[in-house]
Amino acid sequence: xxxxxxxxxxxxxxAGKCPACGAWNSxxxxxxxxxxKQTGKYQFEPSSKPEKxxxxxxxxxxxxxxxxxxxxxxxxxxxxxxxxxxxxxxxGIGKSTLMMQVxxxxxxxxxxxxxxxxxxxxxxxxxxxxxxxxxxNLLLFCSTEVEQxxxxxxxxxxxxxxxxxxxxxxxxxxxxxxxxISQLRECTSLFTRTAKQKNIPFFLIGHVTKDGTVxxxxxxxxxxxxxxxxxxxxxNQFKILRAxxxxxxxxxxxxxxxxxxxxxxxxxxxxxxxxxxxxxSSGSAVGCVLEGSRAFLVEVQALVSPASYGTSQRVxxxxxxxxxxxxxxxxxxxxxxxxxxxDVFLNLAGGMKVLEPALDLSIVAAILSSAKEQALxxxxxxxxxxxxxxxxxxxxxIDKRVKEALKLGYENIIVSARAKNIKTxxxxxxxxxxxxxxxxxx
Length: 442
Fold this sequence. Notes:
Blueprint: E1 2-4, E2 10-11, E3 27-29, H1 69-75, E4 84-88, H2 95-106, E5 112-116, H3 121-131, E6 138-142, H4 146-156, E7 160-164, H5 181-198, E8 202-206, H6 219-223, E9 226-231, E10 238-246, E11 254-260, E12 263-266, E13 284-291, E14 294-306, E15 314-317, H7 321-335, E16 342-348, H8 360-372, E17 380-382, E18 385-386, E19 392-393, H9 398-407, E20 412-416, E21 427-429, H10 435-439
Parallel strand pairs: 4-8, 4-9, 5-6, 5-7, 7-8, 15-16, 17-20, 20-21
Antiparallel strand pairs: 1-2, 1-3, 9-10, 10-11, 11-12, 13-14, 14-16, 18-19
């Protein structure tokens, strides 16, 4: 039979397009499991009977803290008993390193079982020595067979289980190779069922494809409670851990880590990573973006120079180039500044990638500063969205952005005239024409 890796639909024959969801080239060949061998090595608890929702009581158990603030915030406040977390990322980005550090920190007070199906005991020991992981309650089990792993969990009853990785383990009742679609579905189902019945949190490390998604069917991400992705270039020392799904907290939360020789170190004040070092350079402005519930300041760099060739260039790094073209058209029409014969380059410092419109006003200010070759006033932050007619619109959670700017010592805060619920003294503007007297004094 054939199985769609996007939606999970099954069909008897291969087709280039999935008949259910319409995805192209997503049907993968697999075998249908019509019966499972009863190995008798382990047994699950009997299924419970239907209950009234109002009669169900909740055990208010506290979340298990990893003592890593960036990871706890991404998970929504800590590890919930019985949750299943899938963490993915490029090879070598730091998934196993972070899980080893988490295991060591939690093992200082609780029992942790680290299951490795890819590395030997000696390799993991070398890594633990490099990361200085020497907790007494950290248990290592090198196995790829699910039955052995479940038996070890039943015997040890750990407080946390880490599977490295889900693509390396297999269920002996299924006659297919580890990492195949049927193996991934069955192994993830067994681990999820164990986690819910025994209230043991699981961390599953997953491989990614060349497109950056978790290898295997999309149904794996539907089965788990939380999905975390490691982002960042291999040559960049800063890594971003992003939550794309979370049943026990807010989505789109991020945690920022720095890769060092001794492992991953959390970055508690990310605003300092993306801010400029020189206060008196032209073509530079500061804005504020939101990632989940966090606000941090970002430096916007713009370069306006005469075009060397016939057609002027529009290049944006970390920002939508179509939005850059739109803002340039707004500037030309409303401020009577000719930028058609100039190349315009835009960059967000620190390798940030931003989609929200809160940086529109700071981008306009940076372009004007570069075009006039005049630096903006010191300690200035611009917060606002720019409309097609040049009007400045307010952005969401403006009070949180203003508070972050004040915390870092920025005094001149420019916002939209429509912004409300701001208790701090700010400069309110209605149109981008009002930027010149405020920024350049003319």
